[in-house]
Design goal:
Blueprint lengths: L2 E12 L2 E12 L3 E5 L6 H9 L6 E6 L2 E2 L9 E4 L11 H11 L4 H10 L15 H13 L5 E5 L7 H16 L3 E6 L2 H4 L4 E6 L2 E7 H8 L4 H14 L10
Parallel strand pairs: 3-8, 3-9, 6-7, 7-8
Antiparallel strand pairs: 1-2, 1-4, 4-5, 9-10
Helix pairs in contact: 2-3, 2-4, 3-4, 7-8
C-alpha cells in the first residue's frame, strides 16, 4: 500500500489536557478514509496535526513523504477547516479566484471548483449572505482549487441536505478514483459506509484503523453505529494504556 499519511505515536495536549494519546495510523493513497468519532474525540486536533498547524507533544507525522506542514506541501494538500474560512465581503467566485491566484492558477480553475461544489448559481453572491451550508461549500471550493493530491476535509457535509451530501460524496469518490487521497472527518456514522477505510477515534485513542469490510467483520455487524459501539466496548475491556506515558 502506497501511503499518503503516516502517523506514529502522536501525542497532542491542548490546554493542560492530553487530547491525543499516542495515535499511530496510515492513510493509503487514492482512497477515501473516514475519520469518525464523537464530538470532542480529537478529530479536528488530528487533522490539524496533519496539516502542520497543531503543536505536538510527541510522535511523527509524515504527509506525502514530507514532515507535516513542510513548505513543499503547500500546493499539494487542501484543507477544509470546520468553520468556513472564506471572506464574507467577497462573492463565492471572488473567493475561489483569490485562492486560485495564491496557487498561481487562473479564473477557470476557480470557476470549476465553484461548479463542482454545486454553487454555480450563487457564484456572484457575497459569501456573507449565503446560508451556513452554502458557506461551507464555498469554503470547500477554495480547498479544491488547484486539485491538491491530498484533501483533508473536516466535516465537509455538515449542514448539507441529503441530495447535496450524496453529490459531495460522489465527488469525493470520483476524486479518489482519479488517484487523489481524501481524509474526511464526520461524526455521522452513515457517512462511514461511503469510505474505503475507517479511522475510529474515541477520547483521543484510535479504536479501529481498517477497511470498512474489516470493521464490519470484526464487530460482527453491517450496522456501523452498532459496530462502533461494539469496538468501544471491546476496547474498554482491553488492558488500559498507561496514561502516565502521555503526561
Ligand atoms: N484550544 C483548545 N484548548 C484546550 N482544549 C481544546 C482546544 N481545542 C480543542 N480542545 C479540546 O480537545 C478535545 C478534542 O477536540 P477536537 O476539536 O479535536 O474534537 P473533535 O472530535 O473534532 O470534535 P467535534 O466533532 O465536536 O468537532 C476536546 O476535548 C476539546 O475540548
Amino acid at each position: 500500500m502506497e501511503t499518503a499519511i503516516e502517523v506514529r505515536d502522536l501525542v497532542v495536549r491542548r490546554g493542560r489536557r492530553p487530547v491525543l494519546h499516542g495515535i499511530t495510523c496510515a492513510v493509503p493513497r487514492g482512497s477515501v478514509t473516514g475519520l469518525l468519532g464523537p464530538s470532542g474525540s480529537g478529530k479536528t486536533t488530528l487533522l490539524r496535526a496533519l496539516v502542520g498547524v497543531q503543536v505536538v507533544a510527541g510522535g511523527t507525522v509524515t504527509v506525502l513523504g514530507e514532515p507535516a506542514g513542510a513548505a513543499e506541501l503547500r500546493h499539494r494538500v487542501g484543507y477544509l477547516t470546520q468553520s468556513p474560512s472564506v471572506y464574507p465581503d467577497l462573492t463565492v467566485r471572488e473567493n475561489a479566484r483569490y485562492f486560485a491566484r495564491l496557487h498561481g492558477l487562473g479564473a477557470a480553475e476557480a470557476d470549476r471548483a465553484v461548479r463542482d461544489v454545486g454553487l454555480a448559481d450563487a457564484a456572484g453572491q457575497l459569501v456573507g449572505t449565503l446560508s451556513g451550508g452554502q458557506r461551507s461549500r464555498a469554503s470547500l471550493a477554495c480547498a479544491l482549487v488547484g486539485r491538491p493530491e491530498l484533501l483533508i476535509l473536516d466535516e465537509p457535509t455538515v449542514g448539507q441536505d441529503p441530495v447535496l451530501r450524496a453529490e459531495l460524496w460522489e465527488m469525493f469518490r470520483a476524486m479518489a478514483a482519479n488517484g487523489r487521497t481524501l481524509l474526511v472527518s464526520s461524526h455521522v456514522m452513515d457517512e462511514a459506509a461511503r469510505c474505503d477505510r475507517l479511522l475510529l477515534i474515541r477520547e483521543g485513542r484510535l479504536i479501529a484503523d481498517d477497511t470498512l469490510a474489516a470493521v464490519r467483520a470484526t464487530a460482527g455487524t453491517d450496522d456501523l453505529e452498532a459496530a462502533f459501539l461494539h469496538l468501544i466496548r471491546a476496547n474498554e475491556t482491553a488492558p488500559a494504556d498507561v496514561e502516565e506515558s502521555v503526561r
